[in-house]
Amino acid sequence: MIKHQIQPADISMQIIAATCAGIAIVASAFHFWPFENNKAWQMFNLQNSSILVWSLFWAVLFLLNRNRRQIITLMPHLSVFAYLGINVLSTAFASDRARAAGFTIKLALALIGGYMLFSSAIFSKKTLQLIYALATAAMIISLSACLTERFWFGWDKFGFHVNAYKYGTYIGILTPLCSAYLFTSSKNWKITAGMILVFAAIISSGSFGAIAAIFAGVLTTAVIVPRWYVRTAILAAVISGAGFLSLSNMNRFLPVSDDIRIIEKDGTNLKQRYIEWQAEINLLENRTITGTAAGCINEYRSNFYYRLPKLNTLKPFDQNGWLAAGAETGIFGLVCFCWVVLHYGKMAFLKVIDFDWKKGRTIDRFAAANFAGLSAACVANLFSSVQYNGIVIIFVLVIALISGTNRLSEENLR
Amino acid sequence: MTEQIRTNNEKICKKETIRNAVGFGLAAFGVVTAGYMCFGSKMPVAIENPEIPAVASFFILVNYKSKTSLNIIQRITGFYLVAVLVNQLSQQYFQTSSLPINFRVSSSIVVLSLFAAGFFIADKKSVNPPDSIYKMLFYSWVFAFGVIIAHMAIVGVMLNRFYGYGYDRDLYVLGNLCLYFLLFIFLWKKLENIRFRQVVGLILAVFYTVVAITGRFS
Description:
A: 17 helices; 70% helix
């Protein structure tokens, strides 16, 4: 039997991998700060650069025929390549070739390079714990910046992410991932920290998507973890966060109530978000397979409103990631994206049903956190897109964690 | 007794070979028909960068021995490129005005029926069970259908309350999705065969290269 050699050849490689992964995770909290509007920085920001450096390093090793087998074992599942393949093929229909190519390159960099970087960094339980700690640190940085801007300075901004939807997707996935890991700890201070994080994330949210993703993720944790104190802590954090949010909304302190409403401020029109959903479904009528090309949804979508009003109130990234994947890469692109989610979802679910809380295994804590993170990502993808540059890294982190946890638990069994 | 068993086996083998050949021929003819019909008409979706599908068609032609992952990517590419041709045909109709009933049928149905015939003649009766990738992709289709239908239901109710926007478009979209789902079922197993993949790759390579050179559909 061939034994899986998942580790890079020596300790120095492991240290480089863990360092690059750490930089990428922490840098994701800063998003495109401080050059938000600079296209070059959007591509070569710190998180993308660390992935790029690592990818080039692996590419050279692969071409030199060194560690080739190890590199192959660290690659993402075939479904990811299939999805990227469809993205590449869809660029044949792009009127703006540069835009489609840019989007696809960034997506490929994150989905392959990012995945391999995180997988290389996960080589023991200790490094897995380190990744969760770094993700929690990134979340705290993002939360603190947002809370300071909104509550201290009274600005209508969302920290380094600036946009409510991007911030919501980022925090909506990270909160359940990190808090589930903290909630399942046996130490009281960690459970308290988890509660504070959930509470802070809920009150800092400015979008329906963020609230829905956090609720979905933490409630998933409450369902799958059969411990009364975990459930009590989660319920307490959720109820207090939601209570504070609704009370503060009475004073028009936060704009989240506007986003939850299904009608526009004029009171006579349906919220533009839902009209966009229909336009994306309509788009599948003529461009069922071809789509609009990866990253080019805005080029064609306006042709598919038909009799529906175009209110121009949709803010950037208030997209539906599922429908956007279908509209951009066609139905087969959506099928391949669903394949990615199903593959890693199945892997995460099988670990969850294998729980044995009596033994107090650390691997169960990882499994619970990963499943909660993936559930949150699926819900967040309804009100924003997990595939956009700067956000996709968190989705990749979740699937790499699922795969890494699975691999480590298999190695423990051997 | 042994002689009889051997004769029977030979008969079965011969039958299966004929069935496979007919299935192969029908499906390959389906691809040729789709390409020919696309060429003879104006395609509704412009192929802005035809060199990409042209290169992808040449990729299908390569025989990667024992590289399972690459074979699956080739099958996915092959399916996508054939489906693009069907997409170009789905808005073109055959119409008969001479009959008492105005009979209208999409050109894509003609191509689909060729693939269906090929599937029912050869693949449906094949003894080989479907592979795990087929199963996973099948569930992914179901998942994608679930996503689209759930959105249609939610938005349908909301829009109807506000603007009285009907379900006619949604039904058309659903019909289209079913068309490609069936195409996937009929074509996936066939694409497992390297010879079929190469034939399809050759037809597509000719088609997309001509499109790229002439710039006819961009």
